[in-house]
Amino acid sequence: MIPLSLALVMLLLCVCGMVAHQHQRCVAQIASPGRGFPLALMSALILPAMVLYGFLGHLWDWDQGRVDHRVGYLLQKTINEDRLALESEPANPERYLKLARSHAAGGQYEQAVTVMEQLLARATPQAAWLGLQASYLYYRDGRAFGEDARARVEQALSLDNTDVTTRMLLANQAYLIGHYAEAIGHWQVLLASHRDDVNRTAIGNAIARAEARLPDAS
Questions:
Q1: CATH number of the CATH domain containing 176
Q2: Are residues 192 and 162 in the same domain?
Q3: Is 169 exposed, middle or buried (CB count within 10 Å of its CB: 0-12, 13-18, 19+)?
Q4: Residue 213 predicted with pLDDT over 50
């Protein structure tokens, strides 16, 4: 608390000094106000406000060990709320999933992987969870399939060969590297399934685009 108090005192002294300096300049120009007077007055009001905003803006995350400054304020707020919700309901799988998705939305794939690992250690693994963690591992490693991601994919498909998250991950990766026939194969597995959570229209369009890129397509 001492460093924080000292910083606040120094900040207030700095602001007061700025205001006093600008006030003297304004008083000196009141007798013959010109273009400089409004500018000086605006500086006296705006500059201290900017200094305060720049400092106080960081007080919102004072209790975070490390904050990813690339994440926007609103998203970081959501992550913090999801973390608190998880702490209040550590046995609720949905809390883990929501926090992991929030981390992933901010590009924090390492944190998302960690949250999913915690969930998989607490509850019986499900194919969708394994596929989701495989996706986070894939993006964490720069859109590359490492050993960990491949292991999760194999686990997921062993539990559910038609898991949407896992099959979509494999199809998208195959499409991106030009393996269009392989991508089509993964999408067709989903189309042939009787799942209700499959967007058949979108998958049909994706298959059509991939077929148009096949070497023998004309």
A1: 1.25.40.10
A2: yes
A3: buried
A4: yes
Domain count, the chain: 2
Tokens of 202: 């979108």
**What is the span of the domain harbouring residue 44?**
2-61
Full-model pTM: 0.66
- DSSP states of 96-156: HHHHHHHHHHTT-HHHHHHHHHHHHHHS---HHHHHHHHHHHHHHTTS---HHHHHHHHHH
| DSSP-derived 3-state class of residue 8 | helix
pLDDT tens-digit map of 82-133:
999 999 999 999 999 999 999 999 999 999 999 999 999 999 999 999 999 9
Is 218 inside any structural domain? no
Say if 157 falls within a structural domain: yes
DSSP secondary structure string for all residues of 165-181:
HHHHHHHHHHHHTT-HH
Helix (H, G, I), strand (E, B), or coil: what is residue 161? coil
